[in-house]
Specification:
seven-stranded mixed β-sheet
């Protein structure tokens, strides 16, 4: 099923996610694939669709900083970075406190999280609060910014939320903060020298 990024399409997508379905959706960087992060079977399906190694953990997208604070620990330094770059193409690796997420996503103590700068995705996140948010591609292949290419190459999802062609500078940059030092895990749309308080 393919739906538009309007109220009706977002509501349909939300209903699919609630029932344990898989959605492809636009973000501010590339097309993402996701599900309810608390649904173990849906999480398994994402690994299968992407042919992703089980060792690689899945990141999540959140609607707001308050929701991120409910599942992780955020110190003052990290919060300053968050307020400067979220919503946006910056993923943070944070200490996870939510036991249910540890179980469903098979995580130890850390989780990768971001708030995307996409009106469409944020409207969806307003309903579901948290969403697995990994790139909608086969692991090792390029990510998609064109919806038609994405539909042609990815199979077995339940709903495609079409946001048109995405113009971006690439995938999100992933960082981890330890003792107020920023460690770049993956450089993406945000360059290392741009990330500062």
């Amino acid at each position: 099923m393919k739906v538009d990024c309007d109220e009706k399409g977002i509501e349909k997508t939300w209903q699919v996610i609630k029932k344990g379905g898989i959605t492809i959706f636009p973000t501010d960087t590339v097309y993402g694939i996701g599900c309810n992060p608390y649904n173990i079977n849906a999480v398994k399906k994402i690994y299968e669709i992407k042919s992703r190694d089980k060792i690689k953990s899945l990141p999540v997208l959140a609607y707001s900083l308050d929701i991120v604070k409910e599942i992780t620990i955020i110190d003052k330094f990290t919060e300053k970075i968050i307020k400067k770059y979220w919503p946006g193409p910056l993923t943070l690796i944070l200490t996870l406190t939510d036991q249910k997420l540890k179980e469903s996503l098979k995580l130890q103590n850390k989780i990768a999280v971001r708030i995307p700068d996409s009106k469409c995705t944020l409207k969806l996140l307003e309903k579901c609060k948290l969403l697995v948010g990994t790139s909608a591609n086969i692991s090792g292949n390029s990510s998609y910014t064109n919806p038609d290419e994405c539909i042609k190459n990815i199979k077995n999802y339940d709903v495609f939320l079409n946001g048109g062609t995405i113009t971006s500078k690439g995938e999100s940059t992933i960082i981890e903060i330890e003792d107020e030092k920023i460690k770049i895990i993956r450089e993406g749309a945000l360059k290392a020298e741009d990330i500062m308080i």
